[in-house]
């Protein structure tokens, strides 16, 4: 049993009674997938079919269908358990980078302290040792710290993108954008995920709603602001083919050669006509470097620099290899894992650096795509005479059929014989009323 979560969410939003067209338009699914999904859901949860005299079908699902599915399917229960386990493991992975950073800093600077104490004791031993140069030389790199140290990681360099995506991030995570230190380290390194992970879902939900709002008949220009259209497709409206296939539509041609697109399945609804506002065009969200607060970002970046600087200082102290042999213990261990510490320090700053420039390039591409869709939306909003004629032709095919409970001729909620008797009684009463 495989059930699409989008179908279940659509059924809940449509008050547990819906037609195939309702679900296809609301969830942005292909008509065939919506139909199979509704049939499966009704079958697995003891739902009912309500059929009108004209053959239109509405699906009526119990409000506790999710509970029925959970109790019925061991696989669903296992999936829920696996999801919870993965969320816990992923959280451990996220905080592990911050833990490693703290451990690395502590190990590096404790080792440096041990070496410096040993060197100080060695220099204070006796003048003979100092005379013959038996003290351990100290080679420390020199660094210049200035106010521009953290320029790269300042939020000012990506605030434009972050403003566009912060709302999406808050909705997705359900939080206020504040992370603890260990989560902030992961965000600094790897960001907060793709803000457009559900782009295709949003695209088809919006297109389905546009078609529904227009009464099941549209022109290509009304759909173009929600698609990514190649130049070759824009010439002959080939970009409409995926929409026709998904929502079981077909073209209609006027006497003057205008083409519109008709979607009869989306013209039947099980409830009062629902209207949902849609944006003028599909807008991709911009990638942000990180959604952590500026002070958190500065703290994490500063610790990253501190870790790398400490590793370089430790490299100078361990350069001749004799200090580890003399002191052993912690110093010997630090020398054995030194290249891991140095690699982690470089990677800790290198990964965000590469990601920063990658995000800049990615956002430029998003800006171009958004601008192109906005231009298509402008064409519709400022329609010329030719486009207005096409839209008027499409409106000739627009309609909305509401399948109410009074229209239901048969339903699986009752036995067929019982329904036949009810229909006969209703016909007799109507006949008597007419005679009187």
Summarize the structure.
The chain is 60% helix and 7% strand. It has 436 residues and is α+β, with helices and mostly antiparallel strands.
Task: Write out key terms for the chains shown.
436 residues, alpha+beta, four-stranded antiparallel β-sheet, three-stranded antiparallel β-sheet, 18 helices
Distance between the termini: 55 Å
Cross-sheet strand order for the largest sheet = 1-3-2-9
Rg is 33 Å
H/E series, N to C?
HEHHEEHHHHHHEHHHEEEHHHHHEEH
Largest sheet, in brief, is: 4 strands, antiparallel
The proportion of residues in beta strands is 5-15%
Structural class, by secondary structure, is: alpha+beta
Uncertain residue segments: 126-176, 430-436
Mean pLDDT across all amino acids: 80
What is the global morphology?
elongated
Number of strands: 9
Report the total helices.
Answer: 18
State the helicity in percent bands: 55-70%
List the helices and strands and how they pair.
Blueprint: H1 5-13, E1 17-18, H2 20-27, H3 31-44, E2 48-52, E3 57-60, H4 65-72, H5 74-123, H6 127-131, H7 159-173, H8 181-190, H9 199-213, E4 217-218, H10 220-223, H11 231-236, H12 241-246, E5 250-253, E6 259-262, E7 268-269, H13 294-317, H14 322-327, H15 329-336, H16 338-381, H17 385-395, E8 401-402, E9 408-411, H18 416-435
Parallel strand pairs: 7-8
Antiparallel strand pairs: 1-3, 2-3, 2-9, 4-6, 5-6
